[in-house]
């Protein structure tokens, strides 16, 4: 009996009756705070590779040079829309939802230090990683054509059949070497810290 | 618990469950108390239990480790009866009583433990 | 060893009442259930293996993807366990924000669980009402974090973003709306004679069986077990948390525990919004080497992370024990036994809130 009264009370509410007679599906709109795929702003990319460093999905974001301008490109099938690249970018090149606004407002940053680890038992000294490394290529343009480097300023280079890390502090943690290694011998440990309020 | 219908070959998937880290630890622990190899225990478990039960083994062992008195824990009876359900609770009590009787009769501790193990293995195999 | 029975009844792997694939094999005499067995392996992900050798910023997203319904708590427990390893303490405001997002997630998970129970006992009207109410909660989650599921809101030392006073006001009014609506729905649920017929005294889980199988969450709390990891969590104790416990142990008790926990979550969020003071939301800090066994309370119960990290903050070993594992096991081996009707098999199974994605990490 109480149950029937409850049902009648439920269906006799003015709100229920009005919505019953004027039933209408709300239009499908994406709310402005939705964290969508990152989009480019008109800021200039400085090729610091912070977005590639932080990206948790494999090969979701790559910084490429098109028409003489560096620009991050997102592979939509790989991107998981986490929005970390937007927070990591120091130049505000990317935007999505509320992230860029709150990042500026609250001065949020993600900073990392990196450590390159080469498993010498797996490494066959092919030098793919040294050629692929975008920082290496900036430092020694000879790598682009010849594939071998004689410079001591590069991050790593193949010397007497073994890959040696020379300047670990120059690494930006972009993982390009990991992806180009055919044996999975090189790993970059990225020790990232989530900070607030400018430099520590 | 151990009588099922339409047997499909689930051994491979059950083995994958037992190989994961926490499951491997509890299987090793019980295999050590029973004095058998872990592969043998895995075989027994795969034959006896269903997949959901195998998944839940570590959690059941966590509870069973706190149950029972010192003698029972030494023989691993709570694990066998309560967590792994390999022998019934009555049999567990019987084994414990026989073990205590042997100790009273003056049989050495190690010998009594190994006899209790033999009895447990017989019960499991039967 | 085969058993001679009248009927052998398979339920699943695809069943209209299940959200995810799994197969229950029941031995029945007539409609009376003698024994049941759950067969898994349809959605095995191997996520623990993928996590190995990766830093927190990758594992955090993988952890969320263990379960799509209770994704926030996986993030929460993973980050808190690495924080405990490295001695990072989240800032005060961040701790309260974590509680708010976690409780919103718990609300939507409980509403979904109760939706599927109502759907299973063929009360589709109430089911759709609950599902509609869940959308309000999901919208709040989206408003705060930017995504409905897999929010990725919690990072070591704090949270991803702050909430402004506008968002807090909107959250408060949404909570008032949920509070009012849900009170009416519960009145319908409690007094419905047909609902009572399908729920009361069905699928009874005794306290002993629950303890033996390490049942957790609402399933255990409906059987009178005081087991809630939130009672030992510092932020929750500061908010004055006490677990919801019922004694009956049947389907009805489990559903009512979930409904009451939704109200409890509303109260917790309100008091967190009151207690929150302005301040930083990120404290920084890097992950160090160590190993830990850390428990947290997911919507379905106790979630356990056992992990080891190395000097560079990478995860070396990880084992996740999700709450659905003990709950489904106790459901199959204790609750389903002696079910009087084949129609009760699905309703008993759904009332334990099974999550197959959680179970097969």
TrEMBL record, chain A:
Residue ranges constituting the 4Fe-4S ferredoxin-type domain according to the UniProt record: 36-66, 70-99, 114-144, 162-191
Signal peptide segment: none
Species whose genome carries this gene: Methanocalculus taiwanensis
InterPro entries per record: 4Fe4S_Fe-S-bd, 4Fe4S_Fe_S_CS, PSI_iron-sulfur_center
Family annotation (PROSITE patterns): 4FE4S_FER_1, 4FE4S_FER_2
SUPFAM superfamilies linked: 4Fe-4S ferredoxins (SSF54862)
Keywords: 4Fe-4S, Iron, Iron-sulfur, Metal-binding
Top-level taxon of the source organism: Archaea
Name used for this protein in its record: 4Fe-4S dicluster domain-containing protein
Segments forming a coiled coil: none
A single GO molecular function term of this UniProt record: oxidoreductase activity
TrEMBL record, chain B:
SUPFAM superfamilies: Hypothetical protein MTH393
Gene3D superfamilies: EhaM-like
Name of the protein in question: DUF1959 domain-containing protein
Automatic annotation (TrEMBL), chain C:
Residues that bind Mg(2+): 48, 320
GO MF annotation list: oxidoreductase activity
Binding site residues for Ni(2+): 67, 70, 355
Domain NADH-quinone oxidoreductase subunit D: 124-282, 287-361
Cofactor: Ni(2+); Fe cation
Keywords: Iron, Magnesium, Metal-binding, Nickel, Oxidoreductase
Residues reported in the UniProt entry to bind Fe cation: 70, 358
PANTHER family: FORMATE HYDROGENLYASE SUBUNIT 5-RELATED, HYDROGENASE-4 COMPONENT G
Protein name: NADH-quinone oxidoreductase subunit D domain-containing protein
